[in-house]
Design a protein that fits this description.
The complex is a heterodimer.
Chain A lengths: L19 H32 L13 H15 L39 E4 L5 E4 L1 H5 L4 E8 L5 E10 H7 L10 E5 L6 E5 H4 L5 E6 L2 E2 L9 E3 L14 E5 L19
Parallel strand pairs in A: 1-10
Antiparallel strand pairs in A: 1-2, 3-4, 4-7, 5-6, 5-10, 7-8, 7-9
Chain B lengths: L9 E5 L2 E6 L2 H7 L5 H29 L2 H4 L5 H12 L14 H25 L5 H6 L3 H29 L1 H9 L2 E5 L2 E6 L1 H6 L1
Antiparallel strand pairs in B: 1-2, 3-4
Helix pairs in contact in B: 2-5, 4-5, 5-7
Classes of the chains: A alpha+beta, B mainly alpha.
Protein backbone atom coordinates (compact mmCIF):
# COMPACT_ATOMS: atom_id res chain seq x y z
CA UNK A 1 0.00 0.00 0.00
CA UNK A 2 1.33 3.32 -0.89
CA UNK A 3 1.59 5.81 1.85
CA UNK A 4 -0.17 9.04 1.23
CA UNK A 5 2.14 11.65 -0.07
CA UNK A 6 3.35 13.78 2.75
CA UNK A 7 3.89 16.77 0.61
CA UNK A 8 0.37 17.82 0.12
CA UNK A 9 0.24 21.05 -1.70
CA UNK A 10 -1.02 23.59 0.72
CA UNK A 11 -2.88 26.56 -0.55
CA UNK A 12 -0.47 29.43 -0.74
CA UNK A 13 -0.28 31.04 2.64
CA UNK A 14 -2.07 34.28 2.55
CA UNK A 15 -1.00 35.28 5.99
CA UNK A 16 -1.26 38.91 6.65
CA UNK A 17 1.93 40.75 7.45
CA UNK A 18 2.08 41.21 11.19
CA UNK A 19 1.78 44.73 12.41
CA UNK A 20 4.60 46.18 14.48
CA UNK A 21 2.51 45.91 17.61
CA UNK A 22 1.81 42.27 16.91
CA UNK A 23 5.48 41.60 16.36
CA UNK A 24 6.30 43.26 19.64
CA UNK A 25 3.63 41.32 21.46
CA UNK A 26 4.68 38.05 19.94
CA UNK A 27 8.33 38.53 20.82
CA UNK A 28 7.46 39.69 24.30
CA UNK A 29 5.28 36.65 24.82
CA UNK A 30 7.98 34.24 23.71
CA UNK A 31 10.66 36.01 25.73
CA UNK A 32 8.64 36.11 28.91
CA UNK A 33 7.50 32.54 28.49
CA UNK A 34 11.13 31.42 28.25
CA UNK A 35 12.04 33.70 31.13
CA UNK A 36 9.25 32.26 33.22
CA UNK A 37 10.12 28.66 32.43
CA UNK A 38 13.78 29.26 33.26
CA UNK A 39 12.86 31.09 36.45
CA UNK A 40 10.53 28.34 37.62
CA UNK A 41 12.99 25.59 36.75
CA UNK A 42 15.77 27.39 38.61
CA UNK A 43 13.52 27.62 41.64
CA UNK A 44 12.37 24.02 41.31
CA UNK A 45 15.97 22.88 40.80
CA UNK A 46 17.00 24.55 44.01
CA UNK A 47 14.01 23.08 45.86
CA UNK A 48 14.91 19.65 44.55
CA UNK A 49 18.49 19.99 45.74
CA UNK A 50 17.53 21.45 49.08
CA UNK A 51 14.90 18.78 49.76
CA UNK A 52 16.96 15.93 48.35
CA UNK A 53 17.29 12.96 50.70
CA UNK A 54 20.23 12.47 53.02
CA UNK A 55 22.79 9.92 51.93
CA UNK A 56 22.68 6.51 53.55
CA UNK A 57 24.95 6.71 56.58
CA UNK A 58 28.04 4.61 55.99
CA UNK A 59 31.66 5.53 55.47
CA UNK A 60 30.37 8.98 54.59
CA UNK A 61 27.19 10.49 55.91
CA UNK A 62 25.43 13.57 57.12
CA UNK A 63 24.85 15.36 53.86
CA UNK A 64 22.45 15.29 50.91
CA UNK A 65 22.96 12.60 48.29
CA UNK A 66 23.64 14.96 45.35
CA UNK A 67 26.03 17.04 47.44
CA UNK A 68 28.01 13.96 48.42
CA UNK A 69 28.20 12.95 44.78
CA UNK A 70 29.50 16.41 43.94
CA UNK A 71 32.11 16.18 46.70
CA UNK A 72 33.29 12.79 45.45
CA UNK A 73 33.39 13.88 41.81
CA UNK A 74 35.23 17.04 42.78
CA UNK A 75 37.74 14.93 44.70
CA UNK A 76 38.41 12.84 41.59
CA UNK A 77 38.93 15.99 39.53
CA UNK A 78 41.31 17.69 41.94
CA UNK A 79 43.26 14.53 42.78
CA UNK A 80 44.71 14.78 39.28
CA UNK A 81 46.67 17.81 40.42
CA UNK A 82 48.20 16.04 43.41
CA UNK A 83 51.93 15.51 43.23
CA UNK A 84 54.68 14.63 45.65
CA UNK A 85 56.58 17.51 44.08
CA UNK A 86 54.00 19.98 45.39
CA UNK A 87 55.25 20.74 48.85
CA UNK A 88 53.59 22.61 51.66
CA UNK A 89 55.20 25.97 52.26
CA UNK A 90 57.58 25.83 55.21
CA UNK A 91 58.72 28.56 57.58
CA UNK A 92 61.72 29.24 59.83
CA UNK A 93 61.40 27.75 63.33
CA UNK A 94 61.37 31.22 64.84
CA UNK A 95 57.94 31.80 63.31
CA UNK A 96 56.35 28.76 64.95
CA UNK A 97 53.63 29.38 67.53
CA UNK A 98 54.59 28.90 71.18
CA UNK A 99 51.00 28.32 72.24
CA UNK A 100 49.90 25.72 69.78
CA UNK A 101 46.19 25.78 69.19
CA UNK A 102 44.28 22.80 70.52
CA UNK A 103 40.90 22.49 68.84
CA UNK A 104 39.43 19.15 69.78
CA UNK A 105 39.67 16.37 72.34
CA UNK A 106 37.61 13.79 70.51
CA UNK A 107 39.30 10.43 70.84
CA UNK A 108 42.22 11.72 72.91
CA UNK A 109 40.48 12.75 76.12
CA UNK A 110 40.04 9.35 77.73
CA UNK A 111 42.22 7.85 80.44
CA UNK A 112 45.32 6.59 78.81
CA UNK A 113 48.60 5.14 79.98
CA UNK A 114 51.40 6.31 77.71
CA UNK A 115 53.83 3.70 79.03
CA UNK A 116 51.67 0.81 77.89
CA UNK A 117 51.14 2.31 74.44
CA UNK A 118 52.23 0.40 71.36
CA UNK A 119 51.56 1.36 67.78
CA UNK A 120 49.49 -1.40 66.24
CA UNK A 121 49.91 -1.82 62.49
CA UNK A 122 47.52 -4.25 60.86
CA UNK A 123 48.64 -5.45 57.46
CA UNK A 124 46.04 -6.22 54.83
CA UNK A 125 46.80 -9.90 55.34
CA UNK A 126 45.52 -9.49 58.87
CA UNK A 127 48.97 -9.79 60.42
CA UNK A 128 49.36 -7.44 63.38
CA UNK A 129 52.62 -5.66 64.21
CA UNK A 130 53.46 -3.66 67.32
CA UNK A 131 55.98 -0.85 67.65
CA UNK A 132 57.19 1.09 70.67
CA UNK A 133 57.84 4.83 70.54
CA UNK A 134 61.57 4.09 70.97
CA UNK A 135 61.57 2.03 67.79
CA UNK A 136 60.11 4.97 65.91
CA UNK A 137 62.50 7.47 67.48
CA UNK A 138 65.46 5.43 66.26
CA UNK A 139 64.47 6.18 62.67
CA UNK A 140 65.68 9.37 60.94
CA UNK A 141 63.78 12.34 62.32
CA UNK A 142 61.92 14.71 60.02
CA UNK A 143 60.96 18.17 61.20
CA UNK A 144 58.52 20.53 59.62
CA UNK A 145 57.42 24.09 60.32
CA UNK A 146 54.28 24.77 58.33
CA UNK A 147 50.94 26.45 58.51
CA UNK A 148 48.44 24.02 59.97
CA UNK A 149 45.08 24.69 58.34
CA UNK A 150 41.72 24.06 59.91
CA UNK A 151 38.58 23.50 57.92
CA UNK A 152 36.95 26.14 60.14
CA UNK A 153 39.22 28.73 58.60
CA UNK A 154 41.99 29.36 61.11
CA UNK A 155 45.57 28.40 60.50
CA UNK A 156 48.71 28.55 62.59
CA UNK A 157 52.41 28.08 61.95
CA UNK A 158 53.49 25.05 63.97
CA UNK A 159 56.70 23.12 64.44
CA UNK A 160 56.42 19.34 64.52
CA UNK A 161 58.98 16.54 64.53
CA UNK A 162 58.74 12.81 63.97
CA UNK A 163 59.29 10.07 61.48
CA UNK A 164 58.20 10.47 57.92
CA UNK A 165 55.38 8.04 57.19
CA UNK A 166 57.14 6.94 53.99
CA UNK A 167 60.35 6.25 55.98
CA UNK A 168 58.36 4.27 58.53
CA UNK A 169 56.82 2.15 55.78
CA UNK A 170 60.15 1.53 54.13
CA UNK A 171 62.09 0.78 57.28
CA UNK A 172 59.66 -1.81 58.57
CA UNK A 173 59.22 -3.45 55.18
CA UNK A 174 55.61 -2.45 54.69
CA UNK A 175 56.06 -1.40 51.03
CA UNK A 176 53.58 -3.99 49.80
CA UNK A 177 50.87 -2.22 51.83
CA UNK A 178 51.31 0.94 49.80
CA UNK A 179 49.80 -0.75 46.75
CA UNK A 180 46.47 -0.47 48.57
CA UNK A 181 44.41 2.66 48.02
CA UNK A 182 43.91 3.84 51.59
CA UNK A 183 45.41 4.10 55.03
CA UNK A 184 43.17 4.18 58.09
CA UNK A 185 44.19 5.43 61.52
CA UNK A 186 42.33 5.25 64.80
CA UNK A 187 42.89 6.46 68.34
CA UNK A 188 43.43 3.78 71.02
CA UNK A 189 39.90 4.40 72.37
CA UNK A 190 38.46 4.26 68.80
CA UNK A 191 36.84 7.62 69.49
CA UNK A 192 38.44 9.33 66.49
CA UNK A 193 39.45 7.85 63.18
CA UNK A 194 40.56 9.05 59.77
CA UNK A 195 40.90 7.62 56.31
CA UNK A 196 43.66 8.82 54.00
CA UNK A 197 44.28 8.16 50.35
CA UNK A 198 47.64 6.46 49.87
CA UNK A 199 49.28 9.25 47.81
CA UNK A 200 48.59 11.79 50.56
CA UNK A 201 49.82 9.43 53.27
CA UNK A 202 53.03 8.76 51.31
CA UNK A 203 53.60 12.46 50.61
CA UNK A 204 57.14 13.38 51.75
CA UNK A 205 55.77 15.84 54.33
CA UNK A 206 53.43 13.40 56.07
CA UNK A 207 54.90 12.47 59.45
CA UNK A 208 54.13 10.38 62.48
CA UNK A 209 54.95 13.10 64.97
CA UNK A 210 56.30 12.58 68.48
CA UNK A 211 57.58 16.11 69.04
CA UNK A 212 56.01 19.54 69.19
CA UNK A 213 58.34 22.54 69.38
CA UNK A 214 61.26 20.09 69.82
CA UNK A 215 59.70 18.56 72.96
CA UNK A 216 57.79 15.31 73.37
CA UNK A 217 54.11 15.73 72.49
CA UNK A 218 51.99 17.14 75.30
CA UNK A 219 49.12 14.94 76.44
CA UNK A 220 46.42 17.04 74.78
CA UNK A 221 48.23 17.00 71.44
CA UNK A 222 48.10 13.24 71.21
CA UNK A 223 50.98 11.92 73.29
CA UNK A 224 52.95 9.86 72.43
CA UNK A 225 52.38 9.77 68.64
CA UNK A 226 50.07 11.67 66.32
CA UNK A 227 49.63 12.23 62.63
CA UNK A 228 50.80 15.42 60.93
CA UNK A 229 49.65 15.49 57.34
CA UNK A 230 50.13 18.99 55.91
CA UNK A 231 48.42 18.16 52.60
CA UNK A 232 45.15 17.75 54.53
CA UNK A 233 42.97 19.94 56.71
CA UNK A 234 43.38 19.63 60.47
CA UNK A 235 40.46 17.19 60.74
CA UNK A 236 42.66 14.49 59.19
CA UNK A 237 45.59 15.15 61.57
CA UNK A 238 44.60 12.50 64.07
CA UNK A 239 45.85 12.85 67.63
CA UNK A 240 47.20 9.73 69.42
CA UNK A 241 47.51 7.00 66.87
CA UNK A 242 46.53 3.59 68.22
CA UNK A 243 46.03 1.55 65.07
CA UNK A 244 47.07 1.87 61.44
CA UNK A 245 45.33 -0.23 58.80
CA UNK A 246 45.59 -0.53 55.03
CA UNK A 247 42.65 -1.03 52.74
CA UNK A 248 41.44 -0.75 49.19
CA UNK A 249 38.15 0.73 50.28
CA UNK A 250 37.73 3.92 52.25
CA UNK A 251 38.39 3.36 55.96
CA UNK A 252 35.91 5.01 58.29
CA UNK A 253 36.45 8.70 58.92
CA UNK A 254 35.02 10.67 61.82
CA UNK A 255 34.16 13.90 60.01
CA UNK A 256 33.24 12.34 56.67
CA UNK A 257 30.46 10.62 58.62
CA UNK A 258 29.24 14.07 59.61
CA UNK A 259 28.90 15.68 56.23
CA UNK A 260 32.47 16.74 55.51
CA UNK A 261 34.39 15.94 52.37
CA UNK A 262 36.18 12.60 52.68
CA UNK A 263 39.25 13.81 50.82
CA UNK A 264 39.69 17.19 52.56
CA UNK A 265 42.99 17.68 50.74
CA UNK A 266 44.87 20.91 50.30
CA UNK B 1 42.16 41.89 60.19
CA UNK B 2 41.09 38.34 60.79
CA UNK B 3 38.64 36.54 58.60
CA UNK B 4 37.30 33.19 59.64
CA UNK B 5 34.97 30.68 58.19
CA UNK B 6 32.98 29.10 60.93
CA UNK B 7 31.42 29.56 64.31
CA UNK B 8 30.88 33.30 64.23
CA UNK B 9 34.55 34.08 64.00
CA UNK B 10 34.56 36.02 60.79
CA UNK B 11 35.45 39.48 61.97
CA UNK B 12 37.31 42.62 61.17
CA UNK B 13 39.46 43.68 64.09
CA UNK B 14 41.67 46.72 63.91
CA UNK B 15 43.80 47.82 66.85
CA UNK B 16 42.11 45.44 69.24
CA UNK B 17 38.58 46.58 68.53
CA UNK B 18 36.16 44.39 66.62
CA UNK B 19 34.24 46.58 64.22
CA UNK B 20 32.31 44.04 62.22
CA UNK B 21 31.61 40.44 63.04
CA UNK B 22 30.83 38.19 60.12
CA UNK B 23 28.25 37.24 60.68
CA UNK B 24 26.26 38.61 63.59
CA UNK B 25 23.98 36.17 65.42
CA UNK B 26 20.86 37.74 63.97
CA UNK B 27 22.16 36.95 60.49
CA UNK B 28 22.57 33.25 61.27
CA UNK B 29 19.19 33.14 62.95
CA UNK B 30 17.54 34.94 60.06
CA UNK B 31 18.84 32.41 57.56
CA UNK B 32 18.61 29.47 60.00
CA UNK B 33 22.25 28.52 59.41
CA UNK B 34 24.01 28.28 62.77
CA UNK B 35 26.65 25.55 62.99
CA UNK B 36 26.23 24.21 59.48
CA UNK B 37 29.78 24.44 58.18
CA UNK B 38 29.85 20.99 56.54
CA UNK B 39 26.59 21.67 54.73
CA UNK B 40 27.75 25.10 53.62
CA UNK B 41 30.99 23.69 52.29
CA UNK B 42 29.19 20.93 50.41
CA UNK B 43 26.98 23.51 48.69
CA UNK B 44 29.99 25.70 48.06
CA UNK B 45 31.90 22.93 46.30
CA UNK B 46 28.92 22.14 44.09
CA UNK B 47 28.01 25.70 43.17
CA UNK B 48 31.62 26.66 42.46
CA UNK B 49 31.28 24.48 39.37
CA UNK B 50 27.98 26.05 38.41
CA UNK B 51 29.18 29.63 38.79
CA UNK B 52 32.52 29.01 37.10
CA UNK B 53 30.99 27.23 34.10
CA UNK B 54 28.22 29.82 33.91
CA UNK B 55 30.84 32.56 33.82
CA UNK B 56 32.86 30.81 31.14
CA UNK B 57 29.78 30.27 28.93
CA UNK B 58 28.67 33.87 29.41
CA UNK B 59 32.06 35.28 28.48
CA UNK B 60 32.27 32.96 25.47
CA UNK B 61 28.83 34.12 24.38
CA UNK B 62 29.72 37.80 24.60
CA UNK B 63 32.88 37.16 22.57
CA UNK B 64 31.21 35.03 19.88
CA UNK B 65 28.18 37.29 19.53
CA UNK B 66 30.26 40.45 19.57
CA UNK B 67 28.21 41.75 22.51
CA UNK B 68 31.45 42.43 24.34
CA UNK B 69 31.72 45.66 22.37
CA UNK B 70 28.69 46.96 24.22
CA UNK B 71 30.02 45.78 27.58
CA UNK B 72 33.67 46.72 27.75
CA UNK B 73 34.38 50.25 29.00
CA UNK B 74 35.53 52.75 26.41
CA UNK B 75 38.25 55.30 26.88
CA UNK B 76 35.84 57.97 28.09
CA UNK B 77 33.68 55.58 30.12
CA UNK B 78 35.35 56.32 33.41
CA UNK B 79 34.72 60.04 33.04
CA UNK B 80 31.21 59.49 31.82
CA UNK B 81 30.34 57.01 34.54
CA UNK B 82 30.73 59.77 37.06
CA UNK B 83 28.18 61.84 35.17
CA UNK B 84 25.84 58.85 35.09
CA UNK B 85 26.15 58.48 38.85
CA UNK B 86 25.43 62.18 39.34
CA UNK B 87 22.43 61.85 37.05
CA UNK B 88 21.11 58.79 38.85
CA UNK B 89 21.44 60.58 42.16
CA UNK B 90 19.41 63.46 40.70
CA UNK B 91 22.29 65.86 41.09
CA UNK B 92 22.71 66.36 37.38
CA UNK B 93 19.86 66.70 34.95
CA UNK B 94 21.34 65.26 31.79
CA UNK B 95 22.77 61.79 31.41
CA UNK B 96 25.54 61.38 28.86
CA UNK B 97 24.41 59.84 25.57
CA UNK B 98 24.68 56.09 25.48
CA UNK B 99 24.33 53.14 23.23
CA UNK B 100 22.96 49.91 24.70
CA UNK B 101 24.59 50.42 28.07
CA UNK B 102 25.75 53.59 29.72
CA UNK B 103 29.29 54.14 30.93
CA UNK B 104 28.54 53.10 34.51
CA UNK B 105 26.93 49.91 33.30
CA UNK B 106 29.88 49.12 31.06
CA UNK B 107 32.22 49.44 34.02
CA UNK B 108 29.95 47.46 36.33
CA UNK B 109 29.33 44.61 33.88
CA UNK B 110 32.99 44.31 33.04
CA UNK B 111 34.07 44.62 36.66
CA UNK B 112 31.78 41.76 37.64
CA UNK B 113 33.58 39.52 35.14
CA UNK B 114 36.97 40.55 36.50
CA UNK B 115 35.62 39.91 40.00
CA UNK B 116 34.42 36.48 38.93
CA UNK B 117 37.84 35.59 37.59
CA UNK B 118 39.28 36.89 40.86
CA UNK B 119 36.93 34.68 42.86
CA UNK B 120 37.92 31.59 40.91
CA UNK B 121 41.64 32.28 41.29
CA UNK B 122 41.51 33.22 44.97
CA UNK B 123 39.12 30.33 45.54
CA UNK B 124 41.54 27.82 44.07
CA UNK B 125 44.35 29.45 46.03
CA UNK B 126 42.45 28.80 49.27
CA UNK B 127 40.99 25.46 48.27
CA UNK B 128 44.26 23.80 47.19
CA UNK B 129 47.08 25.97 48.57
CA UNK B 130 49.53 23.09 48.24
CA UNK B 131 48.70 21.82 44.75
CA UNK B 132 48.13 25.35 43.39
CA UNK B 133 50.84 27.00 45.48
CA UNK B 134 51.65 29.38 42.61
CA UNK B 135 48.10 30.74 42.70
CA UNK B 136 48.35 31.20 46.45
CA UNK B 137 51.60 33.04 45.92
CA UNK B 138 50.01 35.12 43.16
CA UNK B 139 47.20 36.11 45.51
CA UNK B 140 49.65 37.33 48.12
CA UNK B 141 49.45 34.26 50.32
CA UNK B 142 46.74 32.18 51.94
CA UNK B 143 45.45 34.90 54.25
CA UNK B 144 45.30 37.62 51.66
CA UNK B 145 43.61 35.25 49.20
CA UNK B 146 40.93 34.58 51.81
CA UNK B 147 40.40 38.28 52.36
CA UNK B 148 40.08 38.98 48.64
CA UNK B 149 37.75 36.02 48.18
CA UNK B 150 35.53 37.24 50.98
CA UNK B 151 35.66 40.88 49.90
CA UNK B 152 34.63 39.87 46.38
CA UNK B 153 31.68 38.00 47.82
CA UNK B 154 30.59 41.14 49.66
CA UNK B 155 31.05 42.92 46.34
CA UNK B 156 28.53 40.58 44.68
CA UNK B 157 26.03 41.34 47.40
CA UNK B 158 26.37 45.09 46.78
CA UNK B 159 26.27 44.56 43.03
CA UNK B 160 23.09 42.55 43.41
CA UNK B 161 21.40 45.12 45.64
CA UNK B 162 22.31 48.10 43.45
CA UNK B 163 21.40 46.11 40.35
CA UNK B 164 17.92 45.26 41.61
CA UNK B 165 17.28 48.80 42.83
CA UNK B 166 18.34 50.17 39.45
CA UNK B 167 16.12 47.74 37.59
CA UNK B 168 13.17 48.78 39.72
CA UNK B 169 13.93 52.48 39.16
CA UNK B 170 14.39 51.99 35.43
CA UNK B 171 10.84 50.79 35.18
CA UNK B 172 8.82 48.17 33.38
CA UNK B 173 9.80 48.86 29.78
CA UNK B 174 13.46 48.56 30.65
CA UNK B 175 12.88 45.29 32.45
CA UNK B 176 10.84 44.04 29.50
CA UNK B 177 13.72 44.89 27.19
CA UNK B 178 16.15 43.03 29.45
CA UNK B 179 14.10 39.88 29.07
CA UNK B 180 13.12 40.22 25.42
CA UNK B 181 16.28 41.76 24.04
CA UNK B 182 14.72 44.76 22.33
CA UNK B 183 13.62 48.15 23.42
CA UNK B 184 10.30 49.73 22.50
CA UNK B 185 10.32 53.44 21.88
CA UNK B 186 7.03 55.14 21.23
CA UNK B 187 7.38 57.93 18.72
CA UNK B 188 4.42 60.25 18.93
CA UNK B 189 1.60 57.76 18.51
CA UNK B 190 3.21 54.85 16.76
CA UNK B 191 5.23 52.26 18.58
CA UNK B 192 8.21 51.05 16.63
CA UNK B 193 10.97 48.61 17.23
CA UNK B 194 13.65 51.22 17.54
CA UNK B 195 16.63 49.24 18.64
CA UNK B 196 16.58 45.61 17.94
CA UNK B 197 19.75 45.47 19.91
CA UNK B 198 20.26 41.78 19.80
CA UNK B 199 19.63 41.17 16.14
CA UNK B 200 20.99 44.22 14.44
CA UNK B 201 24.04 44.88 16.49
CA UNK B 202 25.26 41.37 16.18
CA UNK B 203 25.24 41.42 12.42
Amino acid sequence: MKKPDKHIERPAKSKKELTVDQKINRRNFISFAVFGVLGVSAYEGWRWLYKSPAEVAGITGGTRKPLRRALNKTELFFRRFFSNNHLVKTYPKSMAAKNVRHNSDIGSDSNFNTDEWRLNVVKHTGESLFFSIQQLMELPKTEIVFSFKCVEGWDQIQYWGGVKFADFIEHFGLQSETSLAYVGMETPDKGYYVGLDMPSAMHPQTILAYELNARPLPFNHGQPLRLIIPVKYGIKNLKRIGTIIFSNSRPRDYWAEQGYDYYSGL
Amino acid sequence: MLIYWANDEYKITLFGHTYVRFFPDWYYNLLHIPQRLAEGMAFHFLFMWFFTLNGIFYVLYTIISGEWRELVPKRNSFKEAWLVVLHDLHIRKMAPPQNKYNAAQRIAYTAIIVMGIGSVITGLAIYKPVQFYYLTWLCGGYHFARIIHFALTLGYVFFFLIHVVQVVLAGWNNFRSVVSGFEVITEKTTATVAQSTEDEKAR
